Amino acid sequence: MPTKRIFAAAALAGALLTSLPLFAEPLTATPATTPSSSSVAPNLMGQLAVFSPAAMLAQSAAPAQVTTKATADKSAGWGDDDDADSADMPNSGVASNAVVALANDTSDLRKTLISLAMQLRDIRYVRGGRDPSTGFDCSGFVRYVFAHAVGLELPTNSASQFLAGLKVNRSEMKPGDLVFFRTAGKRGQGRISHVGIYIANGQFIHSPSRGKTVRVDSLDESYWAQRFAGAKRPGALARS
What we know:
Elements: H1 2-24, H2 37-48, H3 53-61, H4 69-75, H5 108-119, E1 130-131, E2 135-136, H6 138-149, H7 158-164, E3 166-168, E4 178-181, E5 194-200, E6 203-206, E7 215-218, H8 222-227, E8 228-233
Antiparallel strand pairs: 1-2, 3-8, 4-5, 4-8, 5-6, 6-7
Helix pairs in contact: 5-6
């Protein structure tokens, strides 16, 4: 009996070895015609050689990588930590007829910045927004104004914009300088989370928070005075 089993196993192994060329037969392009019955079996056997269940199972188990606008904005840094915890921000700013005028000796570069910023008033706030067609968040608004008025590319969120500028004393601020606030956490003790563009006489223009639009506010208003973190001057304005 053992001898018969050995011969049977040897015969089965031989049959498998002789059939391997069929399974290893490469796929070839076929004419765009209906295949004959004699060609169906070889073609199917050739397809079995490249069928990989393990690879297909791994692919189906992996989560789909869906890239949305929000995901792309987040990965690029847009809106990171900007305008956090700002629900108690004032609902209105300075009235239109109370907005200060620029001094006559203001440089043309700074006038261009403020002019463009003022043209964007009343555009709605959108978290991560960076274009007037869709809306702005605070850093997106500032970045858009500088890019289109003077061709300067600023960092993508308020905290990185704060690190990039030259420090300016409050008494020495000029139109176009950036003003920063800590609107997250305890009053004046959180991280940098909001930015605006200084106009003159304590007024600045910015995109406040959800449900609001680009507007002018006063640094003397208690909310902003308690959260003011300092002013910075982007390099393009250093000698202006």
